[in-house]
Design a protein that fits this description.
single chain, Lipocalin
Length: about 190
């Protein structure tokens, strides 16, 4: 091949790479669906608390105690900014709680999630607010805050990152704060 043929190919590749690096992943990936930049983040996804944000605080009758809060979300459905699934939580790797979750994410990345028990006798809801972001690499993550005051006297407050994991990932095989894999953690519930 001559340099006259290779030069345009090399320039095209360079410009394509520069465009992809310069644009946020949501912008690049949204060419298939411009109205829904986060769709690819949610499809059959599992999310965990990374080790740096396991710290949470329990409050009980005016007493406050630091605890470790590992929460795993298993998102099963997503449609035009709305998502649903299950949430599994272990406080200090002992007190276990499973809830359903339903939430929404705006095109600007604002997130609101409600966690509910699904039991007809329980009306306590846990709410979470936060943001979703996408790194230039395409990696999705949440930054979330939640508060679960059940009776006005007792509850839990926690802010955390939530990151997606897949089989074979380090945190999938060794879930932070638990000394077990994600499947082993979920099998407790």
């Amino acid at each position: 091949m001559s340099y006259k043929t290779l030069l345009p190919i090399a320039l095209l590749n360079l410009l394509s790479a520069a465009y992809a690096i310069d644009k946020p992943a949501a912008e690049v990936k949204s060419t298939a669906n411009a109205a829904d930049p986060y769709q690819y983040c949610f499809k059959n996804s599992t999310w965990v608390v990374p080790p740096q944000t396991l710290l949470a605080y329990l409050y009980n009758n005016g007493n406050i105690a630091a605890v470790s809060d590992q929460t795993v979300w298993v998102i099963s459905t997503y449609n035009q900014g709305y998502f649903a699934g299950e949430s599994y939580t272990a406080i200090d790797n002992a007190s276990l709680s499973q809830r359903h979750l339903i939430g929404s994410v705006t095109s600007e990345g604002k997130v609101f999630i409600t966690f509910y028990s699904g039991a007809s006798t329980s009306t306590d809801l846990v709410t979470g607010i936060g943001t979703m972001s996408v790194k230039s690499s395409g990696q999705c993550s949440f930054t979330m805050q939640m508060n679960s005051g059940q009776d006005g006297v007792n509850g839990l407050t926690h802010w955390s990152y939530m990151i997606p994991v897949n089989p074979g990932d380090v945190f999938y095989n060794n879930l932070p704060g638990t000394q077990m894999s994600v499947p082993q953690f979920l099998a407790q519930f």
